[in-house]
Amino acid sequence: HAADAHRTDLMTITRFVLNEQTKYPESRGDFTILLSHIVLGCKFVCTAVNKAGLAKLLGLAGETNVQASYQKKLDVLSNEVFIKALVSSGRTCILVSEEDEEATFVEPAKRGKYCVVFDPLDGSSNIDCGVSIGTIFGIYMMKDAHEPTLDDVLQPGKNMLAAGYCMYGSSCTLVLSTGKGVNGFTLDPSLGEFILTHPEIKIPKKGKIYSVNEGNAKNWDGPTSKYVESCKFPEDGSSPKSLRYIGSMVADVHRTLLYGGIFLYPADKKSPNGKLRVLYEVFPMSFLMEQAGGQAFTGKERALDLVPTKIHERAPIFLGSYDDVEEIKKLYAAEE
Ligand code: AHM
Ligand code: MG
User: Fold this and answer.
1) Which amino acid residue places its CA nearest to atom 16 of ligand 1?
2) Within 10 Å of residue 40's Cβ, how many Cβ atoms?
3) What DSSP letter does each residue of 109-122 carry, written as one string?
4) How far apart, in whole angstroms, are the C-alpha atoms of residue 113 and residue 130?
5) The Fructose-1-6-bisphosphatase class I N-terminal domain covers which part of the protein (predicted)?
6) Is 236 helix (H, G, I), strand (E, B) or coil?
7) What is the torsional sign of CA 38, 39, 40, 42?
């Protein structure tokens, strides 16, 4: 349609968040400003990821990160981009990044009331082969104007004010929740704007896909093994589930959110707390899942109830469609 080609009445992410925030009379635009800085970081990283193959940005940066895995140049760059974007927003006071062993306390002159926890570029094993990777973030608010301490970020996930991720895939997609449902925005490269393309995302109540690194099966516990077995050999006569596993949490969770099913990174004998990080991987994704009508469970409790004691703490995670997570909860309950 000719008229569509000239549509200018687009719901950009800034317009969307402004609309949401103006419903609060006390809102002074701080959250919108913070988010616009996060969005800028995502656009920057998106461009860098797209150019990486050409610009020879790929490869080892010559440093090892706190997780002792090799840090790629794009990881380093993305971390710098987000730290700078967040500090310069003037709205943050504590930043926790997967790439930095210590939290960053913003200097008083640039301080604001928000704490941001993030993984600037997740899916490190997929960087060099052009498979989807992403940024994950969660936002807490300081309760009052005290001197910031680590306790301000060591809060249960249910206290998050907002969470989201940006996926650098076949398109650049930003999925966000400010606690009133989940919305998805796609970057229009010609405009440089994220446009609302997936309003009010709801995860299907039950799905047909399971997503897990089955290479770890040898070391799984009973409930996880039983669950995955039941995905392949269902006892109720239903069809087996399909397996999809990318190995990029953002991409695996994004598919789970849109198509339904379950994503799991369970505990195993070698990693009793699983692999994924509570603050900037487990919490933001669990927040989004619940906001979309799904569930997130650690094998012991509702994921968002967990109270972290260290900023880089790990936890097992089972998240996705309500009914599918309910199954795994039953199996863990039966163990007790
Ligand atoms: P990373 O932070 O080193 O990228 O690791 C996190 C990633 C997640 O994106 C993904 O869900 C998981 O690791 C995959 O782990 P595995 O390769 O053990 O299956
Ligand atoms: Mg990560």
Assistant:
1) 247
2) 17
3) GGEEEEEEEEEEEE
4) 37
5) 11-199
6) coil
7) positive
For residue 230, the one-letter residue type is S
Question: Digits of tens for pLDDT over the chain (336 positions)?
Answer: 555 556 667 899 999 998 888 777 677 789 999 999 999 999 999 999 988 776 655 555 555 444 433 445 899 999 999 999 999 999 999 999 999 999 999 999 999 999 999 999 999 889 888 899 999 999 999 877 788 999 999 999 999 999 999 999 999 999 999 999 999 999 999 999 999 999 999 999 999 999 999 999 999 999 999 999 999 999 988 999 999 999 999 999 999 999 999 999 999 999 999 999 999 999 999 999 999 999 999 999 999 999 999 999 999 999 999 999 999 999 999 987
Query: Phi and psi at residue 172, in whole multiples of 5°?
Result: -100, 115
Q: Give the integer Cα–Cα distance in Å for 95 and 116.
A: 5
Q: Ligand 1 centroid vs 238 CA: distance in angstroms?
A: 31
Q: Which DSSP state fits 144?
A: S
Q: Residue 259 is inside which H or E element, if any?
A: helix 249-259
Residue 328 corresponds to which amino acid? I
Distance 271 CA to ligand 2 centre (A): 16
Ligand nearest to the CA of 264: 1
Q: Which atom of ligand 1 is nearest to the CA of 123?
A: 4
Q: Please give the distance, rounded to the nearest whole angstrom, from the Cα atom of residue 58 to the centre of ligand 2.
A: 17
Q: For the residues of 19-76, what is the DSSP string, one character each?
A: HHHTTSTT--SHHHHHHHHHHHHHHHHHHHHHHHHHHT--SEEEEE-TTSSEEEHHHH
Q: Whose CA is nearest to atom 5 of ligand 1?
A: 123
Query: Any residues with CB less than 8 A from the CB of 72 and at least 6 apart, and which?
Result: 58, 59, 60, 61, 124, 127, 128
Instruction: Tell me which residue has its CA closest to atom 14 in ligand 1.
Output: 247
Query: What would the two tokens of residue 216 be?
Result: 């770890």
